[in-house]
Structure formats: C-alpha cells, structure tokens
Design brief:
Order of helices and strands: HHEHEHEHEEHH
Strand order of the largest sheet: 3-2-1-4-5
Number of helices: 7
Distance between the termini: 33 Å
Radius of gyration: 28 Å
Strand content: 5-15%
Number of strands: 5
C-alpha cells in the first residue's frame, strides 16, 4: 500500500497535470471559434467553384482533349494528399484519419491503381511512413496550430500541378477531417483531379449555360489552377478547425478524469491517514495501560 508521502506526491502530480490540460483546453477553445468561422466562411465559395467546374467538365468532356487539371493524366497513378496535425493530444483526430487512409489505399490498390502519398502534418507523415514507406513521395509540416494562410495552399497547389505536368501522377484526392462540431470530425475524401462529374448530368443542358469570353482555353488556364488551390485551402481550414475541436474535447475529458483521480487519491490518502492515527492512538493507549 502506498505511503502517505507517495500519495501526496501523486495527488500533487495529478493536480499539476490538471492545470496543464485545463490550460490547453482554454487555448484550443479560443482558437476553435476563430478557425471555425474561417472554415465555415470558405465553404460556400469552395462548394460553388467545385460545382461549377464539375458541371463544366460534364459539358465539355466530349469535345476533344481537355486540360490536364480537368481530365487528369492517361495513367493510373493516384496521389493522396493527407492533411493531419503536427501536434498530438487531440483524441482520435489523427488516428481516425490514418485508419481511413489505410482503407482508401487498400481500395485503390485493389482497383489496380498505383498509390502515391503526400502528407501535410507530422502525425500523418509518421503514420504513413510506418505503413507505406515506399509510397510516401513528400512530407510537409502542418501549421502547428497557427493560422492557415492561403500562400500555403498556393504552394501546395503548384507542387501538385508540377507533378501532374511531369507525368508523375495522374489523379489527385485530398483526405482530411471535415469539421462538423467540437466533438465530431469526419474523415472525408475530396477528388480534385479529374474533376468529378455530376451523376445526373445532361450535357446539352449544361453546355448552354456557359459562354466563354475571351476564350475557353485562356479562362480554364487561369481558373483550373485557382480551383485546385481553393479546394486545398478549404480542406486545410476544415482540418485546422477540426484539430482544435478535437483537442478541446480531449483536454476537457482529461481535465475531468484528472479531477476524478484526485478525488479518489484524496479519499485513499484520508483513509490511510485515519488508519495511521488510529494505530498510533492504540499504541499510546496500550503503552499507558502497560504502565
């Protein structure tokens, strides 16, 4: 049975841990609101841009050769861009995405595709390097809990476009945690190249909706890379908000558990102390009777 000194040390240690987890919870909560607003603000623009270009891809897919960012390459090399966090202590935020990622890799390989992986965030990079060391073509750091700048998506989009142009890859999909609320982040796949075509498309109806000025090639050459960057930026914002929500929830649970542990240890300490006092009284009384 632990001594009173050991119990006091354990109680003090758990109290120190509770202070840390409580502080981390408050920091995550303060960041969450700001990140959540940015993620929600990005959704309408990103969704509208993705929907417009998907309809445009459906309307023009029978009109000869399409831009690379619209139809993808001729091969079957698929790049998966995985967005995770640099830091831990966020519950199952990274583990759930890594598990989903492994399922996606197995499915794509079962369909005969060659999978390449680009990770953004240290946790995802570590997990994928352990699971698929030969398929990770690039590892990049995440934002480490800081604000997500559009320049990051711009840089990443240019790197992916260069890989497409060089023929290293033919298709691109982003895998990330979509922010639902502070307690829920859903692993999500977002196909970027080729552009997904609506299932119920009617090519004749869609073609009539678009008129290009000055010309189709010039507009698509500008808007397709921009769409790639916008979609990546929106996914980065979703992942950043989800990370803070997951960390706030995890630290709240840790703080509650620490409180329960302190109560339990304090109860054991008081019982041990009471038993020691009782033993000492008995020894004093026995000694007095002996005299």
């Amino acid at each position: 049975m632990p001594s009173l000194k050991e119990l006091r040390a354990r109680i003090q240690g758990v109290k120190s841990q509770r202070k840390i987890t409580s502080a981390m919870k408050m920091v995550a909560a303060s960041k969450l609101r700001r990140f959540q607003l940015r993620a929600e603000a990005s959704r309408p623009y990103a969704d509208a841009m993705r929907r417009m270009l998907s309809e445009l891809a459906a309307a023009t897919r029978h009109e000869g050769e399409l831009p690379l960012l619209m139809q993808g390459g001729p091969g079957r090399t698929h790049l998966l861009v995985m967005l995770t966090s640099d830091l831990g202590l966020a519950g199952g935020f990274n583990a759930n995405l890594a598990r989903a990622m492994r399922g996606i890799v197995e499915r794509l390989e079962g369909e005969g595709e060659t999978v390449r992986i680009l990770t953004v965030g240290r946790k995802g990079g570590d997990a994928m390097t352990r699971a698929y060391p030969d398929q990770v073509v690039m590892r990049q750091p995440g934002t480490a809990g800081r604000e997500v700048e559009f320049a990051r998506a711009l840089e990443l989009g240019k790197q992916i476009e260069e890989m497409l142009v060089s023929g290293e890859i033919d298709r691109v999909t982003v895998v990330y945690n979509r922010f639902i609320n502070a307690m829920t982040q859903t692993p999500t796949t977002l196909p970027l190249v080729p552009l997904p075509v609506p299932e119920n498309d009617n090519r004749d109806d869609m073609a009539a909706q678009y008129e290009f000025e000055p010309n189709e090639e010039e507009i698509l050459a500008h808007i397709l890379p921009r769409n790639l960057q916008v979609q990546i930026y929106a996914a980065l914002l979703e992942s950043a908000a989800g990370e803070q929500g997951a960390r706030m929830t995890a630290m709240d649970n840790a703080t509650r558990n620490a409180g329960s542990a302190i109560d339990s240890l304090t109860q054991r300490y008081n019982r041990s102390r009471q038993a020691n006092i009782t033993t000492e009284l008995i020894e004093i009384i026995s000694g007095a009777e002996a005299v």
